[in-house]
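Protein modeling request. Please complete all fields; requests missing the sequence field cannot be processed.
Requester role: graduate student
Desired output: 3D structure, token encoding
Chains: 1
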Amino acid sequence: MAKEKILKDLTRARDSGKPVRVSRDIDGADQLDAYVVGVGRKWVLLHTVSDEYRLEGYSAVRLRDIAHATRSSWKGATVAHRALALRGERPRPLADADLDSTKGLIETLTTAFPLMAVHVERIDPHVCHIGRVRGIGRGKRLRLQEIGPAADWARTRSATRTTDITRFDVGGGYIDALHAVGGHPPKR
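Delivered output (188 residues):
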């Protein structure tokens, strides 16, 4: 019953074009201030709002992890919405984003963005892995060629079970800066 209400709130937020604060039932996970730009059977796509009231990149979070998605829990929602409108910034959905399957979402994001941040917040809410997706291997493991905080590319690829992934981030200042400095990963 509660998940039906959350789905209704998310759909209403998407249709209204108003920002919300998304809280998840994962200990230590960030609250996300954002516009809902897509709702699927498994994933919700958010166009995130920075602390400076600018549109950042996108976050995709699992629908099943969402505990609340309301304007009332974010006191700055109206100011953020007005500030963005005055600057001419408008949230945009991603064309053809597959939010019904994890594999489809990974393919959508990888096609649209050169780098992706992968979060496994149920395991460790303070760590994310950033890099270029190199496919999904055996056992439904996402293979990622990681880029470090100094924009240096790892020589090996990490593997994360797709069922452990709670959030993907693409675009946005930090990820874009890593790509600008580090460039594309070396071919291996």
